Amino acid sequence: MGLLAGLRNSISNLFSSGQKQRRIGIYGPPNAGKTTLANRIARDWTGDAVGPESHIPHETRRARRKEDIEIERNGKSVNIDIVDTPGVATKVDYEEFIEHDMEKDDAVRRSREATEGVAEAMHWLREDVDGVIYVLDSAEDPFTQVNTMLVGIIESQDLPVLIFANKIDLEDASIQRITNAFPQHETVPLSALEGENMDEVYEKIAEYFG
Amino acid sequence: MSEADDSSAGDADGSGVQLDMISGERMDQLASMEKIRLILDSVHDGNIVILEEGLDPEEESKLIEVTMTEISPDEFTGIEIETYPGSSKSSGGFFDRLMGRETETKLTVIGPANRLETLHKDETLISALVTRT
């Protein structure tokens, strides 16, 4: 956690009698498994889901918030709202959706909604979140410009951040590659789809955002 | 009108690819939105923009946001942008600014997504292909 964020938390705790509700944004590139993770967390602690999951990029095109999730681990508990955000990209081409057997009109509409969603996600990051879970696909190269820029933007906001190396159930997964890409942050391996290592996920959430 | 604006028709006959190399000194004189406008206007013209000192994280965030609002099917699909990954270690956070520590500068390449393709990138090398479309 950054020095400023820690200081801010300490001051906040001094003056608040109850537990503060923190808004945690789930960020990352398209298809990293952000919605699968949001659904896993929401189902484990509230029984509800957040939104539909898909292998087609930009399935999530609006930020979705799930409120009042209380996570308890090792005597620590944290009350959070999780915000599942659209995958961030610097380009959106409707032809990418046509390759997923979509009609042109649907593909164009999806791309328009996707661009609005990315802009919305950037706005949330600058204005409306208290911490970030940055989700990466462990089977993909983490050295991308979007990852570099987003982690830099998060750091510049002095927000506490956890890197989640998702999809460790895949054959090509490499946790070390992600650790090497962002050595300044703690990396937690998991498979949101299979529910692997969720105990550590919840421990870290309670520790970082509690 | 800026010199970069004047040169927007540099590839009018489609015979080449125009590079706009913008110094840190020139960018320092501009407000954030002026920087973003300068970059995107050039990229809309099909040019490749090379920034000597790059953008700060908040400007990068706004660049993504404004780019998204300008994407149009069959006309503009967005931008390709590259800097070295190590730049994320230099956050330019509050205490850095308070203590007068400058954000690390980073050479940045920006182009239209349909003309600039990154072939390879690691901590020390960016290899990109520029096409004439």
Q: Which secondary structure elements does this structure contain, and how are they paired or packed?
A:
The complex is a heterodimer of chains A (210) and B (133).
Chain A: H1 3-15, E1 21-27, H2 34-45, E2 64-73, E3 76-84, H3 94-98, H4 104-127, E4 131-137, H5 145-156, E5 161-166, H6 175-181, E6 187-189, H7 198-209
Parallel strand pairs in A: 1-3, 1-4, 4-5, 5-6
Antiparallel strand pairs in A: 2-3
Chain B: H1 3-6, E1 19-22, H2 24-28, H3 32-44, E2 48-51, H4 57-70, E3 79-82, H5 94-98, E4 108-112, E5 116-121, E6 126-130
Parallel strand pairs in B: 1-2
Antiparallel strand pairs in B: 2-4, 3-4, 5-6
Domain G (chain A): 23-167
Organism (chain A): Halococcus morrhuae DSM 1307
Protein name (chain A): GTP-binding protein
Task: Outline the structure in words.
Chain A: This is GTP-binding protein. Chain A: Pfam families: MMR_HSR1. The complex is a heterodimer of chains A (210) and B (133). Chain A is α/β, with parallel strands linked by helices. Chain A has one domain (22-209): P-loop containing nucleotide triphosphate hydrolases (Rossmann fold, 3-Layer(aba) Sandwich), CATH 3.40.50. Chain A contains seven helices and six strands, in the order αβαββααβαβαβα. A six-stranded mixed beta sheet of chain A has the order 2-3-1-4-5-6, sandwiched between helices. Chain B has 133 residues and is an alpha+beta fold. Chain B has a single domain, classed as Methyltransferase, Cobalt-precorrin-4 Transmethylase, Domain 2, CATH 3.30.950. Helix content of chain B is 31%, strand content 21%. Chain B is built from five helices and six strands, in the order H-E-H-H-E-H-E-H-E-E-E. In chain B, helix 3 (32-44) packs across helix 4. The interface between A and B is large, with 37 and 37 residues.
Task: Describe the structure concisely.
The complex is a heterodimer of chains A (210) and B (133). By secondary structure, chain A is an alpha/beta fold.
